[in-house]
Each structure stands twice: as structure tokens, then as C-alpha cells.
Specification:
Layout lengths: L2 H29 L7 H15 L9 H24 L16 H12 L9 H4 L2 H31 L9 H27 L9 E4 L5 E4 L4 H10 L20 H26 L2 H28 L2 H4 L24 H14 L14 H12 L10 H21 L4 E2 L2 E2 L2 H25 L3 H4 L6 H16 L14 H30 L16 H35 L5
Antiparallel strand pairs: 1-2, 3-4
Helix pairs in contact: 1-9, 1-12, 2-7, 3-4, 3-6, 3-18, 4-18, 6-7, 6-8, 6-9, 6-14, 6-18, 7-8, 9-10, 9-12, 10-12, 10-13, 10-19, 12-13, 13-17, 13-19, 14-15, 14-19, 15-17, 15-18, 17-18, 17-19
Amino acid sequence: MTFNGILQIAVFCAVIIALTKPFGGYITRVFAGERTLLSPILRPIEIGLYKISGVKRDEEQHWIVYGVAMLAFSLVGVLSLYALQRFQDLLPLNPAGQSAVTPDLALNTSMSFVTNTNWQSYTPETTMSYLTQMAGLTVHNFASAATGIALAMALIRGFARRSSKTVGNFWVDLVRCVLYILLPISIVYALFLVWQGVPQNLAAYTDVVTLEGAKQTIAQGPVASQEAIKMFGTNGGGFFNANSAHPFENPTPLTNFIEMISIFSIGAALTNVFGRMVGSQRQGWAIFGVMGILFLVGLFVVYPVEAGGNPAFASLGVDQTASSMQAGGNMEGKETRFGIVDSAIFATATTDTSCGAVNAMHDSFLPLAGMIPMINIQLGEIIFGGVGSGMYGMLLFAIIAVFVAGLMVGRTPEYLGKKIEAKEVKMSVLAILVLPLSILVFAAIATVVPDGLAGTANQGPHGFSEILYAYSSATGNNGSAFAGISANTIFYNVTLTIAMFVGRFMFIVPMLAVAGSLAAKKLVPPSVGTFPTDGPLFVSLLIGVIVIVGGLTFFPALALGPVVEHLAMTAGTAF
């Protein structure tokens, strides 16, 4: 590690901390329906949308109605995006003449973008037309992100309200999120990217002749508009196959820094929203502290491992130290314009959230460094998390943590004045266990059937890691991959589609049940025996619960993949 690397990490953390409170305040005002700086322009549009759609903005919904509205919206999204891909060859804005997408890939991509996974089993610039990229993928980048934030607000209202039968109105939350938060910032963000060199046009691909005399086709298109919401909405689906390693998506160190900041911005701000709505910002900062500590622990595994270089090379006498003449460390699969530290921050941040965008190939990371992104996803991406999903995932772990604390002192657990009883604990455990059930079952099947093994580029533990990462990414709605797996087959397209569905909706339904149950409860006045949930003790307990649950669930699988690969590498054994 270098001083420059540590400084970049410090600046990144400082900017995230500085943004959290003001941005959290703005989001709180938006969802409360209060006046904001943009209200004079956007309020008439908001009211007009309600009139056109027949939504009554003052009429709230029971958690079941809220959930049904969300599921219906998602179903329409899947069907419409599927149809757009299947008929894109007959539709306009297709200058490259892209053919219709095959049924299994269209289904996979539709579920992927509607669930905020943005897993891409295809090469975007050679598969999707401009119309599909803009009217399909980019639109769902907004819609899926707004859905996640709306669901987080429903759970936060569950904690904040007392004796209430409702958790908000899904349609109102959706409209306000897109109109006041995602769209304005994405417009400014896209213009910034254009200024930095990201294309934004509808021109046909350009054929050029290289210096060697070869012919090369340069893909371009409406990239900046998709890139902005891709990062800000923690979607991750790139316009190009190389994603944020591509110079047209991420051309400069400044765009790289802003993209990393945008990955965390909403997830961090929602912790402040939580604190404001429950009446104590210290509660929000406690959740922020848990997320921040887990982020730094993961980062300070990835960074020194990658900066230390490949031990197999060290045994051959290869100099891997950083100097003025070389970057040092393990630069395989990384952009030299970003280097190791920015690749480490990006890889950690994009898997702490549901973003899945990459500026380096995780498949080329050393085993222990590659294990951290996998663990981040397997924990449910609760470390800042996807827009909304990280917050409600962390709060479910918080419920488990206070339940454990209650068992320790022999009294009914309480969190923010709400008694945590059997229903909340059961629903929280059910939601948390859905993820490992999908990940481990599908990974086990793929490692024994020929169709699953045929997609891996490597044998042994690394091949197993590719499979495990794929189902972790799909179930966790992340979308990144180990890149060594060829997933555009009927087997992987179908099974990954199911995993994405389970990871999104089978998690959301019990979470909404918790929100409805908590909203109906009365507040219990704090007493001498009340466990404080805004201090270091609670932070430590919550971290312990997360680590123990994750360790007990996934350590055996990780031991068969990256752990064995690391031990084999250090012992000089090749698989």
C-alpha cells in the first residue's frame, strides 16, 4: 500500500460522510411531501401525473396493498421489456441492425433490469438497439431504483409510526423518487459525463482503419444518459461489455471518482433519513457506523492483497513493488489509468451495494481479494447497499440483533420503542435465509450438471468460485460477475432468472410484513432495561450478528472456492 492510496481512500470516505446529512435531509423532505428547491418546477408535473394515472396522493395503503402494487408494477415492467427486446429488429433507432433477442436471454435481461440486478449475459453494444437501451434498460434503471427506495421508506415508516394500518402509497413514493431525486441529479450527472468525454448521440457505429491497416468498428450511442443512472441508481448495467473499464463509460480519473461516490450516495443518505424519521439522527449514524466499518474491513483486505502482488510471481524473483516506474502489485485485469487502489475501492463499493458496475475484472483478483466482493454480496449487500435494499436489509439484521440482546438480558427486545415479537423475528429470519437458500442450491446444481460446468472457463476451485459468484450476484441483485463464466446459455439464463426473482421479491414480501406489523404497534416508553441502539455496544453487536450469520452460512462454500485456491497458490500448487 502507498500513501497516495491511503489518501484516496480517506478522501472518498470524507466525501461520503459530508454528503450523508444534507442529502438525507433532502430525501426526507421529498418523501414527506414538503417543499423543496425543485418544487415550483416539479410539483405541477407531479400533480398532473397523479391525475392522469388516477392516484390519490393523500390515500395511503396497507402493507399488502403496497406490496401488490409493487409486484404488479414489476410484472408489467418484465413483460414490456421482454416484448421490446423480442421485436427490436422491427422497431426504429436500430442503426447497427441488431436482431431480435432470443427468448431465454430476453427473459433473463427483463428480470435482471426490473429487479435492479442488471446482470448481462450478452455483449450490450452488439446485442441491444438504441431504442432498447434507452426506452428499456435506462427506463428500468430509474424504475427499479425508485422501487427499492420506496420499499425502504415503507419499512422506515413502520419504525416511525405508531398504531398505523398503512405504510405509505407505493405510486406516490415511486413518482416522488424519480421526479425529485433520480431524474434531476441524473440529468446533471449525464451532462458532466458528456463534458468529460462520454458519448451521447444516436449516430451509427463508426468504421475506421487502424495504423496496422485493420478495420475496427467503434460503438457509440446514448451512453452518458444510461451511465448516470447506472451508477447513481446502483444498477450497474453498462452500455458496453467492459462496463466502467471502458473509456467511453469512464474516461478519466475524475469520472471514476464521481462514479464511486455516486454508488454510495443514496445508500449512505438513507441512514440519515432513517434517523430523522424515527426522531433521533444518532440512530441513523449508528447504522452508518456499522456499514462504514464493514466497508473499511473489506477494502483493507482487497487493497493490501492486490497491492502485495501475486506470491507465485514473488517466488520467481519478480519485483512487484510500487515505484515511479511501475504500479506494482497485481495489475492483471485492471486499467492502468485507475491503478490498484481505485480498482479496490470500486470493487468493494460496487459489491457492498447492488451496483455491479466494474472498472476491473474481479475474475483476475487474487483469491482472497476476489472473495471479499463475493462475501459483500452474500451478506445481502447491506453495507450501504443498493438504493433502498441495503437499508431494509440492514434493518432486518438490526431486528435480529436486538432479539439476541433481549435473550441475553431475559426480556422482550425493543427497537426504537417497538417491541420485537415473534412475527417480526420470523419474517426477518425468513427474508435473510431466502438468499443463501437460492445461492447455495443453484450453485450446487450447477457444479454437478454438464450444462453448468460447460459455462466455466476454469477448473477446480476457481471454476467453483465463478459459479458461486454468479448465483450470489443474481440472488443478491448485484449483476457483476467473475467474467470467466459463459452464462448466455439456456441453463444459466433460466436458473439465474429464477435466482434474481427469488432474491428480489421473496425478500421483499416478508420485509413488508415486518413494516406493516411494526407500524401497527404502539410505542413503549424507554426504561432502565431498554437496550440502547445508538451507541458502540449496539454497533458491535450488529456487526457480530452479521458476521456470524454470514460466516455460518457461507464459509463452507467459500472454503471450497477462494480459500482453497489461495492455499494452493501460496503452496505453489496449480489447478
